[in-house]
Amino acid sequence: MSELHSSGLVEREGFFRRLLTLPIRHLQQAIGSLGDLWRTPFTSVMTIFVLGISLALPATLHLFVKNAQHVSEQWDSASQITLFLKLSTSEKSGQNLVNRLKLYPEIATVHYISAEQALKEFKILSGFGQSLEYLDKNPLPATVLVTPTQRSSQAQAANELLAKLLKEREVEQGKLDVEWLTRLEAMARLIEDIVVGVALLLCLSVVLIVGNTIRLAILNQKDAIAIMKLVGATDSFIQRPFLYSGAWYGIFGGLLSCVAVAVLAEYLTGAIAELTDLYNSSFELQGLVFNEILTLIGFAILLGLLGSYISVRQHIRAIEPNAD
C-alpha cells in the first residue's frame, strides 16, 4: 500500500516538474529560433521586408478609407437645405417660420436671409449692380438656410426632412443637393471592397512567402531532423522552433509595416496641407491608433504562424530516418 502511495507521489511530482519546465522549454526554443534567423541574415531580412511591405499596402489603404470617412462625416454634417420663401411672405412671417423651424429635432441651425439682403449680395457678386437699380421691385425671395443634425444629414433622412419642410405654408421651393453625397457613399463602399480584396490577396502572398521560407529552412536541416527522429524526438517537438520562426517573421514584419505606414502618412501630411490651404480649409491626416497597430502586428503574427504551420505539417512528416 505504501509502495502505491509513493509511486503516486512520484508521478504527481513528475507531472508538476514537466508542467513547470514546459514554459522554460518553449522560451528556449523561441530564443533558439530567433538565433536561427540571425544566422541567415539575408534570407531573414528579405522575408521580413517582403512581409512588411505586403502588409503596409492594405494598412495604408485602410488609413485612406478611415480619413475619407472622417471627411465625409464632416461634409454630411455641413450639408444644407435651402428654402425659398414665397414673394408674398412678410418679414414677420419669415421670422415666425425661423422660430418654428428651430423647434424641429432634425435641425441643428437655421439662418434667415431677407429679400433685401439677398438682393444686396447678388448686386455685389453678380457685377450687375447698376443695372439692378432700374428694377421696380425686388425679384428675389427671402431664403432660409437649414443645417440638419448629424443623424438627419444622410441622404435619405435629408430628403425626408426636405419633404417635411416643404409643407410649411411660407415655403415656395426647397433645394437639397444629395446626389454628390450618394456618389460619395458609393465610392467609399467601392474603395472598402477594393481594400478587402487587395488585403486578401496580399495576406495569401504573405502566407506563401513565409511557408516557402520555412520550407527551405526545413530542407537545410533535413539531416538533423532525421537524426532527431532517430533518437525519439516527436514531430511536435521538432516543428516548434519553425513555428516560432514564423511568429518572429510576423512580429518583425508587422513592426516594419507600422513604420512604413507612419512614414508614408507623415510624407503625405505636407502635400495634403498644401492642398487644403488652397481651399482655405484645414485637415489633419489621422494615422494608425494604438489598437490598430496592435491589430496589425497580431494579424502579421497570425499569418506568419499559419504559413509556417502549413509548411512544417507537410515537410517534417515527410522526413524519415534511413534504415541504414
UniProtKB/TrEMBL annotation:
It is found in: Cell inner membrane. The chain crosses the membrane at residues 42-65, 194-218, 250-273, 293-312. Gene3D superfamilies: 3.30.70.3040. GO terms for biological process: cell division. Keywords: Cell cycle, Cell division, Cell inner membrane, Cell membrane, Membrane, Transmembrane, Transmembrane helix. InterPro entries: ABC3_permease_C (IPR003838), FtsX (IPR004513), FtsX_ECD (IPR040690), FtsX_proteobact-type (IPR047590). Belongs to the ABC-4 integral membrane protein family. FtsX subfamily. Forms a membrane-associated complex with FtsE. This is Cell division protein FtsX. It comes from Litorilituus lipolyticus.
